[in-house]
Amino acid sequence: MTLFSLIFALLIEQVRPLPVQQLVLYPLRKLSAALIERFNDGQDRHGKVAWWLIVLLATVGCAVVYFLLWHLQPLLAVAFNVGVLYLTLGFRQESHFFTDIHLALRMGEVERARALLAEWRGGQYQDASSSEVARLAIEQALIAAHRNVFGVAFWFVLLPGPSGAVMYRLARFFAEEWGSRQDVEFGQFGAFARRAFELIDWLPVRLTAASFSVVGDFEDAVYCWRTQAMLWPDKGSAILIASGAGALGVKLGMPVHESGEIVERPEMGVGDEADADYMQSTVGLVWRALVVCLLMLTLLGVAGWVGR
User: Fold this and answer.
1) pTM for this one?
2) Which of 29, 44, 232, 247 could be 238's S-S partner, Cβ–Cβ 3.0 to 4.6 Å?
3) Considering Cα of 202, then 23, then 89, then 56, what sign does the dihedral take?
4) pLDDT of 108 over the 70 cut
5) How do the domains of the chain map onto residue ranges?
6) Shortest CA distance to 144 belongs to which of 286, 32, 23?
7) 107 burial class (0-12, 13-18, 19+ CB within 10 angstroms)?
């Protein structure tokens, strides 16, 4: 049932992409604003209380609903799984940016590619070269594929029903919404959300990187993971970018023109400069990694069925 739910949710999302702003992000931002107003006094401990209150309540509540539906009618439980996964997975949520940037670079429309990249990542890239645009797009795609698909799928498989998917999606949201804020008025309210997501994402990040390594250039992926990932400030993103770059045989990281400045960044990966061809290779890498993960899940399901 786990494999069926995942595949069915992915197929639905491919046919009808989720309007994530209206159905997911808008309600979550309303909830976030209410929690900030109620709990935020700038202290870490109150951010911890707010995080546990929502994430734990939603995770446990989702598991309870799943078990109740399973005992009532298993097909209802499967439908619940698929519905929640549709809301928490997001293969198509950001891929349209990547696709449009890839097409613009193919057509030689660098200005349009820069504008699309700015819309996707934030910042300004009017001075970025086509190689820099491709490089940044590949990095963003590797991270997005993990956080929108692989990380969600990992916790969905691990916890009962779709509760793990809900936990991961909420933890990621609050880490981005609260943990990234540096303004003095907000204080340390988001510190726990950032630390909690790093802990929750620790193993999924490494499993995703291992998947990239298996379906790409294994030796280079492992080499870049081991020798370059510690140079990047965000360790989770570093592992994904380093392993993905090594698996593709492309150079990522490195200085880029952003918001009128040259942003110094360490070199990640090995091989050639990034371009539109490597963007196409990135799509293939992500899909192959997803297929490998689904095959592993199938084998685990068969082994469990045979062992009964």
Assistant:
1) 0.93
2) 232
3) positive
4) yes
5) 2-306
6) 286
7) exposed
